[in-house]
Amino acid sequence: MKQYFSELFTGGMSLVEGLGVTMKALFMPIVTVQYPREEIDISPSFRGHIDLILDPEKNSYRCITCGMCEKNCPSNCITVKGEKLEGQKKKSLVLFDLDFTKCSLCGTCVEICPVNALEYSKEYNLAAFSREAFHYDILKRLEERIK
Amino acid sequence: MLESEYQEQNRFFLNMGPQHPSTHGVLLIVLEMNGEYVLDPQPVLGFIHRMHEKMGESRPCPGFMPNTGRMDYVCALPYNHGYVSLIERKAGIEVPERAEYIRVITSELNRIASHLLWLGAYLLDLGAFTPILYGFDDREHILDILESVTGSRLTYSYYRFGGVCQDIDEKFVERTRAFIKRLRKRYGIYEKLVTKNIIFIKRTENIGIVSPDMALRYGMTGPNLRGSGISYDIRKNEPYSVYPEFDFEVPVGRQGDCLDRYMVRVREIEQCLRIIEQALDRLPEGPIRSKVPKNIKLSPGDCNFAVEAARGELSYYLIGDGTSTPYRLKVRVPSYSNLSCLPELGRGILLPDLVSILGSFDLVIPEIDR
Fold first, then answer.
1. pTM above the 0.80 mark?
2. 79-98 in A: which are within 8 Å (CB) of B?
3. Cβ–Cβ contact A9 with B under 8 A
4. End-to-end CA distance of chain A
């Protein structure tokens, strides 16, 4: 009988102690961020989907259309096409398509690129109504940035 | 009516899952019940089978890197670690010492994050809502630290053959040290909130006792095995990377009930912190990546590599055939063996106790189904 009551007492006290912790938390600074209204800065090394780097010297891309990224992508989500345009010695990029629905953000393409032409974008608010919306034409995105 | 007939009539089947909150994923357990008592729980697997092993066999070996983290998304870095170490052993690639230290630090941080998430989720299963919020608060700090160096928050693919892809800087070291200090201060909160709580103790003590013999029979590993009192940790028993250089203990439980498994994990957090502290103190300078051939050829023959993931022994087995694509890749995951003792353990217990046992095993279903 005595043991029963002592257990009841220590058990009850343990609950009160636990409640004390939560009471304390009531007066501690808030750690949650009200997301759509507040935003936190993203880490500089954040890996978003890939983007072409804008070379300030050429005011254009650095890509030489070698296709290394396309070949080494484990998910086969990159399509690169280069064509020899008239009056130019080197091939120029006509299509750089990323199927982001398949991409697993491993970063192989960025690392393998021999001329360092790719970077990670910082976009993370990604939502759309159709699958096709995630087929990014990266060349077009770069051209828009140049404008 | 005879007693046995009455019993027979009261038998019924209950599907627990695949959408049940306490199975933490898509695990179905078909329960044969008699009233509130479970007679025969049978796990049904395969709802989230994604043929990871086959994917590993159908592409050159660097392409499997992102898959490894996705098998166990809660504790992805040890999975990366096992795979890169396997290929390094197979192809004879040397790893710079600094890279190994970085691997150990980040892996241990990830292990703590996994244990904190488990702690919160387990108590959520038992009906306590508050601890998960404290657990997530602490875990968020780890994810921020890891994001600053790896670039993502869950599926890192941070390690590369022959090193890691990004060096850690002074700021990383500083933040990690601050985090260690912070987490040590928070032990008191967890103790008051959970460990001493009478309801928690009543729900876990003497529930789901796994005897050492039974644990060995089913091939259980990790904190579940250590909870049964057997001191077996790959980091100690079959050391890899730079683990032999660190001084840490392997916490073991007494009788193998849910409370022991809980205590082992909580004490393991402190040991992880100790490893990280020592690694930060001794962090050597130097390169983070060695020179690796562009096309890694996997010589004919087999190769195995085991690491200690947060849930137990994770072992990769590979057979090469001279090309860069593995001929066979087998992944031995800890949760599969840990779950397999459930039919024996769950016979004749109350349904709420089954939830408590399932939670205490720390199952990650994508890892089981692969």
1. yes
2. none
3. no
4. 84
